[in-house]
Amino acid sequence: MSSRLVALAFDAHDPLGLARFWAGALLWDVQAAGDVVSLLPTDGTRFRIDFASVPEPKTGQNRIHLDLTTRTADDQTETVETLLALGASHIDIGQGADEPHVVLADPEGNEFCVIEPDNSFLAGCGRLGAINCEGSAEVGYFWSEALAWPLVWDQDGETAIRHPDGTGPLVTWSPDPPPKVTKNRLHLDIAPPAGGDQAAEVDRLLALGATRNDVGQGDVDWIVMADPEGNEFCVLTPR
User: Fold this and answer.
1) Residue 151 in domain
2) For residue 199, is it within any domain?
3) Full-model pTM
4) 105, β-bridge pairs
5) pLDDT means per 10 residues in the chain (239 residues)?
6) Which end of the chain lies in a sparser environment, N or C, as judged by fewer CB atoms within 10 Å?
């Protein structure tokens, strides 16, 4: 039995401040509980976004970033202006002046893209169009099996999966990821369904090509693993 995607998790210096930025970007609701600040979707997305405090600085380009969709050219322009007013900044990652999408960084330097209207790849997606990951097709195949989400794209080393009912954002992988120099600042949290078995799910993921990982998590009730490209993720208790 496969796990479900519970959350996209951000490392943050100011979890509440970063959550408020992304709440403004996505129009999701902020919920603060204990050490973690969460964004709860308002658009039918089936997972939340969590922000947890870490002391480490951001180092290098993230291997995971978000793609935000727009409906019209005016919407793209207005969205960029709104995000800049919320604390985003323009950033150059080598995208070139003629690219139709706009690359920005959130207030803690996490890269993301505001996608041009009429982008056929993200047609039918909401404002959160994609969780865009860097990694080989092998990683896309791994996650398709891990979550039991079908492949909706598999060409030229690029893969994408989506929830089986065809709703919510895509999760995509592109080859030639930037060098991994430290723990990713964004990662996926998954969990077996209620009544499932966490240990059995870990064994299944190991058989698919994952590895156990130690990021200094200590004595916790979740299990830290890495996908075949070395990207960390957490297996939570059944829920």
Assistant:
1) yes
2) no
3) 0.95
4) 89, 111
5) 94 97 98 91 95 93 96 97 98 87 97 96 96 94 98 97 96 87 94 96 98 91 96 97
6) C
